[in-house]
Design brief:
Number of strands: 11
Helix content: 10-25%
Structural class: alpha+beta
Radius of gyration: 18 Å
Largest sheet: 11 strands, antiparallel
Order of helices and strands: EHHHEEEEEEHHHEEEE
Shape: globular
């Protein structure tokens, strides 16, 4: 059973990586030869959303799990089929190291009731700290589990919309690589719907789909290049809602608004007009 009794459940892992993992991540969110700072160890930078890796990593983790490990695994007999990643927020507290062994704590901070037949929203805070115990980055993940609504719990507050009521100041185009989910899953998010056509079709998709966090990584890379001249160190936080799935090879446009106060808002639309990412926001240090 999933209800407010799950709040406070937590688990801990170690997550270790090297510069090769950083380059693999950067490649998996679209980096290429024209972005040497992302693909070559000389002058290498981690695209800021690399800091989402402790959430879903399997490789380099201890204890190891063949699929991303969440504290909901501590709930006996929990139904998880059809669970959807709804929102993600990342705060970077210190520059991302190129080699590290991090202590990761995953904590269920809130379970919201969406109503009978509408499921429950689970909020998981993932804190990655260095060997001295200093937090490096904090992720807040919000999931929909469609099986457990109607338990009489608190309703989730509405996520603020940072996008201004005007046209975007910048539109940057991109395209997911034809093998985007195959590359991205090598970071550790190994769910079968991103590689196995039969599994994807059983879930209602015509083919394997792009990971939501892969879409966010593509957006982050384009934002860093378009707004910060490739300087990853400026970005301090990023958040977004996941609205529609993306398929390998899909073209998209990233609409960007300067909101002032060291912030940008963004939205990602595919070439069919569907919104992939919405209510996106980044904050940076000047």
């Amino acid at each position: 059973m999933l209800d407010r009794s799950a709040e406070g459940l937590s688990l801990e892992q170690q997550y270790s990586y090297t510069w090769r993992d950083v380059i693999l991540y950067n490649l998996s969110v679209g980096a290429g030869f024209d972005e040497q700072q992302f693909v070559y160890e000389k002058g290498l930078q981690a695209i800021p959303t690399f800091a989402t890796m402790p959430c879903t990593a399997t490789f380099g983790t201890e204890p190891y799990s063949p699929q991303p490990l969440m504290p909901t695994a501590l709930i006996p007999d929990l139904k998880t089929a059809g669970t959807l990643h709804m929102e993600h927020e990342l705060h970077i507290l210190r520059d991302i190291p190129l080699n590290a062994s991090l202590h990761v704590k995953k904590l269920i901070t809130k379970v919201y009731d969406r109503g009978e037949g509408k499921g429950a929203k689970i909020v998981v805070e993932v804190t990655a700290s260095d060997r001295q115990g200093l937090p490096c980055f904090v992720n807040t993940m919000s999931y929909l589990n469609r099986w457990y609504g109607g338990f009489g719990g608190e309703r989730a507050p509405r996520t603020p919309d940072p996008i201004p009521d005007r046209g975007p100041g910048m539109v940057l185009e991109g395209r997911f690589a034809d093998n985007a989910p195959l590359l991205y899953r090598l970071n550790g998010d190994t769910y079968s719907i991103h590689a196995d056509t039969a599994a994807a079709q059983a879930a209602g998709f015509r083919m394997p789909i792009v990971h939501g966090l892969c879409s966010l990584g593509y957006a982050c890379r384009i934002l860093v290049n378009g707004c910060f001249a490739g300087d990853c160190g400026k970005l301090r936080s990023i958040r977004s809602q996941f609205k529609s799935i993306a398929y390998p090879g899909d073209a998209f446009a990233l609409h960007i608004w300067d909101t002032g106060s060291n912030g940008y808002a963004f939205r990602m639309l595919n070439d069919r007009g569907a919104c992939i990412l919405d209510r996106g926001q980044v904050n940076f240090q000047a």
